[in-house]
Specification:
The structure holds two protein chains of two kinds. By secondary structure, chain A is mainly beta. Chain A has a single domain, classed as Immunoglobulin-like. Chain A has no helices and twelve strands. In chain B, the strands form two sheets. In chain B, strands 2, 4, 5, 6, 9, 10 and 11 form a seven-stranded mixed β-sheet that branches. In chain B, strands 1-3-8-7 form a four-stranded antiparallel β-sheet, with no helix packed on it. In chain B, a hairpin with a 5-residue loop joins strand 4 and strand 5. Chain B is globular. The model of chain B has no long low-confidence stretch (mean pLDDT 91). The chains are: A mainly beta, B mainly beta. Chains A and B meet through strand 5 and strand 6 of A and strand 5, strand 9 and strand 10 of B.
Chain lengths: 112, 114
Amino acid sequence: AQSVTQLDSQVPVFEEAPVELRCNYSSSVSVYLFWYVQYPNQGLQLLLKYLSGSTLVKGINGFEAEFNKSQTSFHLRKPSVHISDTAEYFCAVSDSASKIIFGSGTRLSIRP
Amino acid sequence: SQTIHQWPATLVQPVGSPLSLECTVEGTSNPNLYWYRQAAGRGLQLLFYSVGIGQISSEVPQNLSASRPQDRQFILSSKKLLLSDSGFYLCAWSVMREPSYEQYFGPGTRLTVT
């Protein structure tokens, strides 16, 4: 069975500092990996996805993530955050069985 | 392009009252459809998903039910609401022919049961 673990429930960082949001997954088959962002009182929006190919994936809003098969990780990074990046971020995994399993979310708060 | 609608956007209902939340998708055919609930400070809980008209899979036993009367319409219902049904309800769709089953989310419905 698949599972997703987001290691940090909250991550506070200062504006213009770098950030890494951690995600580990478990699956017995090949997987597709996603990061979604949720701004307050809104639905989820896809940031980026890994399907195959290059392990470094670039997404919207300057975010990127690296797929590491040996460590079963898919950490999300941004070199310099802005106040507008304040949101909740969800890591997710799919094995093409028509469902996606979401992590519990990481709340990113940006301090000026 | 594809769009997904949910209504109402917010809802306040007393305990014991019925519930009907609606989700419709435009611009695609035969999508997979999903209902999630997000309780305050918690992650996403998959409630129901549907791969076709009249086909509903329930993920957790609870006070809610779902129906898909049309290809692009998904309805979440309850006969009698509980306080624990409060939360943010999200509808999502995915394209069956896409192997990754990437999901696209609606704007959500904020339900408060009083």
